[in-house]
From TrEMBL:
Gene Ontology BP annotations: fatty acid beta-oxidation
Organism: Streptomyces tsukubensis (strain DSM 42081 / NBRC 108919 / NRRL 18488 / 9993)
Protein name per the record: 3-hydroxyacyl-CoA dehydrogenase family protein
Oxidoreductase listed as a keyword: yes
Domain 3-hydroxyacyl-CoA dehydrogenase NAD binding: 14-188
Length: 296
């Protein structure tokens, strides 16, 4: 992967598919760095909420001094039509972590875009080689695991598939440079590095709560106080979204057979109850009465 130091943001036009937790994070990061973004979702109401969320995240990024000085912000265009992506130089897929949904979206997105369009998946766990079989040009596909919040965490995990071309690695390097991100590149595997480690940890932390060994506060307090974890695994789960975690664990479990990746009953119950974490106001913690303190 090579950097292009004098890269101008205007050279990149982004399309982001999926306007949930990560679509809004990535859009805030990109527009905050001067890139224009077309944001696509199947649901108009989600897009209305997303526009508000992106403004809020940009305000938070500004407050945290996480945006480049003096660079005009990019624009955000929202649409429910997937063909809104056609003018983009890079398409970032950030839809739900369900392989069948990703398969359809990636196949359609790759058919709609011209050769030379960088195709990125922000998947948590689906192997890049598996996704390469779904698209028209597997050599232009790469995994970029943006962290949450994307505008605060500089490091990203880049996943190079077997088919990913050198030119694709150069293009993703140029984009990440324009976004002010740093990257570490890993080889392909289910969950890559971060989520092969993090997701079973969160699952095990939830299991300890399920078994009554400790409360969520105590588990997080021990991981923070003794091991230097910044937020604790269960606050992290609430930030990620427990629904997304359960889907991601299932993807991992199906592809690795690792019993540590089978989502525990407590996580499944929280999803069934609609307690998905911060995005629904309740998960392992209750955010409904502490909106300000718990933002973003
Ligand atoms: N949440 C995190 O902290 C986090 C971090 C890194 C990576 N990821 C990954 O990023 C991706 C998105 O996760 P998320 O947490 O934003 O999920 P989310 O559930 O918050 O949002 C997903 C969005 O995709 C939309 N969507 C579903 N089908 C669609 C389609 N066919 N076309 C367009 N939009 C569609 C949904 O309406 C929803 O708005 C997943 O692959 C996830 O594993 C999540």
């Amino acid at each position: 992967m090579t950097d292009t130091p004098n890269e101008q943001p205007a050279q990149h036009r982004l399309a982001v598919i999926g306007a949930g937790v990560m679509g809004t994070n990535i859009t805030a990061l990109a527009t905050g760095h001067g890139l224009d973004v077309t944001l696509v979702d199947v649901d108009e109401e989600t897009l209305t909420t997303a526009r508000r969320t992106i403004r809020h995240k940009l305000g938070h990024a500004q407050l945290m001094n996480a945006l480049p000085d003096g660079r005009p912000r990019g624009t955000v265009t929202t649409t429910t039509r997937l063909d809104g992506i056609t003018g983009a130089t890079t398409v970032i897929e950030a839809v739900v972590e369900i392989a069948e949904v990703k398969r359809k979206v990636l196949a359609e997105a790759s058919a709609l875009t011209a050769p030379g369009t960088l195709l990125i998946s922000n998947t948590s766990c689906v192997p890049v080689d598996e996704m390469a079989g779904w698209v028209v040009r597997g050599e232009e596909l790469v995994g970029v695991h943006f962290m949450n919040p994307s505008y605060l965490i500089k490091m990203v995990e880049v996943i190079r598939g077997t088919a990913t071309a050198d030119t694709t690695m150069d293009a993703v390097g140029s984009l990440l440079h324009a976004l002010g991100r740093e990257a570490l590149v890993v080889n392909d595997a289910p969950g890559f590095v971060i989520n092969r480690l993090l997701h079973p940890l969160i699952n095990r932390a939830a299991l300890l709560v399920q078994e009554g060994v400790a409360t969520a506060e105590t588990v997080d307090g021990l991981l923070e106080g003794c091991l230097g974890h910044t937020t604790g695994p269960l606050r992290t789960a609430d930030l990620i979204g427990i629904d997304n975690l359960v889907d991601s664990l299932q993807v991992l479990h199906e592809r690795t057979g690792d019993p540590e990746c089978a989502p525990c009953e407590l996580m499944l119950q929280k999803v069934a109850d609609g307690h998905h974490g911060r995005k629904t106001g309740r998960g392992f913690y209750d955010y409904r009465t502490a909106t300000k303190r718990n933002t973003p």
